[in-house]
């Protein structure tokens, strides 16, 4: 059963994941030393992760 405590935990965890995604997105500006194809793929993967994260909705039953 999903109670308020679990909802708060998941919401906080989700927010921390989003913060991490944003952090790594900012780091992509400093990727001059890695191959271009990899550097180009990273922002796309971060965007996909962010979209998937935004699709997660936790609601009490």
Query: Major sheet: size, sense and barrel closure?
Result: none
Please give the radius of gyration in angstroms. Answer: 15 Å
Distance between the termini: 8 Å
The helix-strand sequence is HH
- Approximate strand percentage: under 5%
**Low-confidence runs of at least 5 consecutive residues:** none
Number of helices: 2
Overall mean pLDDT score?
Answer: 89
**Which class do the helix and strand fractions yield?**
mainly alpha
What's the overall geometry?
elongated
In helices, the fraction of residues equals over 70%
DSSP summary, beta strand count: 0
Write the layout of secondary structure elements.
Elements: H1 4-27, H2 36-54
Helix pairs in contact: 1-2
What does it look like?
The chain is an all-alpha fold. Helices cover 70% and strands 0% of the residues. It has 2 helices and no strands. The chain has helices at residues 4-27, 36-54. Helix 1 (4-27) packs antiparallel against helix 2 (36-54). The longest helix is centred in the N-terminal third of the chain and has 24 residues, at 4-27. The N and C termini lie close together (8 Å). The mean pLDDT is 89.
């Amino acid at each position: 059963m999903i109670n308020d405590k679990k909802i708060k935990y998941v919401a906080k965890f989700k927010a921390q994941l989003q913060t991490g995604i944003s952090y790594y997105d900012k780091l992509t500006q400093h990727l001059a030393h890695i191959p271009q194809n990899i550097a180009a793929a990273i922002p796309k993967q971060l965007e996909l992760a962010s979209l998937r994260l935004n699709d997660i909705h936790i609601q009490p039953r």
